[in-house]
Design goal:
The protein has 351 residues and is of the alpha/beta class. It is built from eight helices and 19 strands. α1 runs parallel beside α8. It starts with a strand and ends with a helix. It binds flavin-adenine dinucleotide. Flavin-adenine dinucleotide binds next to α1, α4 and α8.
Length: 351
């Protein structure tokens, strides 16, 4: 058994940012993470040619002021998503793709230099890796009067005065037992709270050279036809590595990885030419298969449904248990900006 003043469950952006803000207030905090790595829905893969490829969170913009201010505070650089050149829109299978240009005046979106995982790494270094325990999945939370007891999947017990859950609400209710049970209103709310991007499939293809740019294409592709539904250039900010990255039709989760890869390369060859076949690496992530992110809903739940509901601002089991994942945020819930907002809100509450 171990004892801490505050335990944060989950080492995604919300959990790590919560620990960062609490540590800044000189408070004692331990982060417990079920996975063998940190980051949650932030996952940057490094390819054989060093391309940083995002399987999770990637873009942000001026509509995310809390994240932008936070990046300034922790001194991380970002750059504008490349969109210059000819973009493609496949409307119907029997006609060639429409060509268009994304105007420079469009509201830009940004990516973190070196990959989104830079954000996670920076926070983890500040918190100290000794305060982040991996491979520790919490399965039960029990009210013990002045403390809260947490049981992990190996039966180990942790005691804390305050507990902050940053696991997406639907997953937190479906996979953790609460003794005594949480209020019915909260349980019902969480079961119908959407986990942003939980159903998505992301892919990235790494190349030795940006052949699409050499042919004046932007790398942006939108399709009602092929397996790729949306895609962008994913080269590094300093043009040291090259990739294309985007989303696949969610219903292709039933195919094998090889079948999806074949369809992706075929679509890229059709759009950009035979060079697309000579890729360095192919990566993908079917998020609905990630049991530490996604859990099927009992009923139909729409994108962002119940995100940021006011009930998540309450505390439970006599003010000892708090919810602070991105989906609970009062601003931009579901996004990285929401994760920062949720972390700021809870860390300013805890004493
Ligand atoms: C494909 C995809 C694309 C996205 N694109 C963008 C984007 O472009 N821009 C943007 O702003 N946002 C984007 N997002 C959303 C963004 O990733 C999230 O808002 C943010 O990362 C959520 O952080 P979090 O810490 O709240 O939750 P998570 O990242 O889900 O973290 C929760 C953590 O809890 C852990 N955990 C789960 N159960 C337990 C348990 N029982 N015990 C202990 N630990 C547990 C998990 O392993 C995980 O590490 C995207 C998400 C995905 C999946």
């Amino acid at each position: 058994m171990s004892r801490s003043s505050i335990i944060v469950i989950g080492a995604g952006l919300s959990g790590l940012a919560t620990a960062y803000f609490l540590k800044k207030k000189r408070m004692n905090v331990l982060v417990l993470e079920a996975n063998t790595k940190i980051g949650g829905r932030i996952q940057t893969i490094i390819g054989n040619n060093s391309a940083t490829m995002e399987m999770g969170a990637t873009w942000f913009g001026r509509q995310h002021p809390n994240l932008l201010a936070f990046l300034k505070e922790i001194e991380l650089d970002y750059f504008r998503q490349h969109t210059q050149g000819i973009s493609l829109f496949e409307t119907m299978s029997f006609v060639p793709p429409q060509k268009f240009e994304i105007p420079d005046s469009d509201e830009p979106s940004y990516r973190l230099a070196g990959g989104t995982s830079k954000l996670i790494e920076k926070l983890a270094n500040y918190i100290g890796l000794e305060y982040i325990k991996l491979d520790t999945r919490i399965v039960e939370i029990t009210d013990k009067g002045s403390e809260v007891a947490l049981k992990d999947d190996k039966g180990y017990l942790y005691l804390a005065s305050q507990v902050v859950i940053t696991v997406p609400p639907n997953l937190a209710i479906n996979t953790i037992a609460y003794v005594p049970a949480l209020p019915k209103a909260l349980t019902e709310l969480a079961l119908s709270t959407h986990t942003w991007m939980g159903e998505s499939i992301k892919f990235a293809v790494e190349y030795a050279s940006p052949f699409w740019k050499q042919k004046q294409y932007s790398g942006a592709l939108f399709s009602h036809v092929g397996i790729i539904t949306e895609m962008y250039d994913h080269s590094a900010y300093d043009n040291s590595s090259f990739a294309l990255m985007g989303f696949l039709n969610g219903s292709t989760n039933v195919l094998t990885k090889q079948a999806r890869q074949d369809k992706v390369i075929k679509q890229l060859v059709q759009c950009y030419g035979a060079e697309a076949e000579n890729f360095v690496t192919y990566h993908e992530k079917v998020w609905r298969e990630d049991i530490l992110t996604f859990c099927p809903y009992n009923d139909l739940v729409m994108a962002h449904q119940n995100n940021g509901d006011a009930l998540y601002q309450n505390s439970f089991i006599n003010s000892k248990l708090h919810f602070a994942g991105s989906e609970t945020a009062t601003e931009n819930p579901g996004y990285m900006d929401g994760a920062i907002v949720a972390a700021q809100t809870i860390s300013s509450k805890l004493k």
